[in-house]
Amino acid sequence: MSGYFRTSYLQDTALLDTRAQKAWFGAFAIALCTYPFLAGPLWLDLGNQVLLASIGAVALMLLTGYAGQISLGHAGLLAAGAFTTGILSKEFGASPWLTLPASAAVGAVLGLIFGLPSLRLRGLYLAVSTLALHFIVIFLGGEYETRRGFSTGIVIEPPIGSARGWYFALLAAAAITLLIALNLLRSRTGRAWRAIHGREAVAEALGISVQRAKLSAFVVSSSLTALAGCLFAYYRGFVSAEAFSLYLTIQYVAMIIIGGMGSILGAVLGTVFVVLFPYAIDGGMALVGLSERLSSVVFAVNYSAFGLVMILFLVFEPQGLVGLWRRVQNWFLLWPFKQGRLLK
């Protein structure tokens, strides 16, 4: 009999508990830190987009993938954080040290307000109630732009001037978000989220406050999403209601579906896939010489391919990219035994 055995609570709570995991993590950290020195401008911008989107994807994974609460207001929460940053910066000259916590506070309040229907509604009805958040925030943001005369959006002075500087700032923000999410999931709050996702009646019978667990999931997820919106506003240098369409919400939902529901790793893998997928389609079209012929319908091609990929994952790989990764990992871990069984 062999395997990995934990003999103390300290070992049980360690994020990295084997030498192999620590070695791979060290190599991955070195690769992330050296990436901006090797990548060109386009690839550096793509890396920044992945890091920025991963914050919102992890936040949505906590709410939907772990707590089981459906939300279609993710773009609205991003817009709330971005408009909070834009208004405070434009009207009061606030610094990022003020706009970041202010955006998180606005997101938490919106999460609490729009999380209240989850105490009574489920499924499609809850999704529609959260969809109202998107339209309300976009409407208010558009009204502010119109009344202040910002026809093209609110221009914000970025606190960081270089793409490489943004990379390290977003890398730190994404790493902190991951640590917060992983530690929350191992806490009493995270266990309550998993319980209500499995069966609310059983969770309540075990002494878990279902109402408190649902509201805490909305508040935490909304706060992290609004922070991502704040960073988005600074990174892009402007805020506009058109930047937060309903399609953006669909993209974030696709990130957690394609990545794999109920997995923080799945949220990260799904983010990488969804952010890079349009560029891969454009590159493939250029490679076969169709980019000029289909230049007028390139957006339709991207949308169609995106929808097709979502359907394929839902039908053939419900566990997403993380399911594929785990199968590859198990193949290497169990290789001698699996090969011997296949040969018989």
Furnish the topology, listing elements before pairings:
Elements lengths: L8 H4 L6 H20 L2 H26 L7 H19 L3 H20 L7 H26 L5 E2 L7 H23 L2 H11 L1 H6 L4 H27 L1 E2 L6 H14 L4 H24 L10 H19 L3 H14 L1 H9 L1
Question: Which key phrases capture this entry?
Answer:
1% strand; mainly alpha; globular; 2 strands; two-stranded antiparallel sheet; 15 helices; 344 residues; ABC transporter involved in vitamin B12 uptake, BtuC
Structural overview:
By secondary structure, the protein is mostly helical. The chain has one domain: ABC transporter involved in vitamin B12 uptake, BtuC (Orthogonal Bundle). The protein contains 15 helices and two strands. Helix 4 (74-92) packs parallel to helix 6 (123-148) and helix 12 (264-287) packs across helix 14 (320-333). The longest helix is centred in the middle third of the chain and has 27 residues, at 210-236. It is globular and about 65 Å long. The protein starts with 8 loop residues before the first helix and ends with a helix. Residues 339-344 have low confidence and may be disordered.
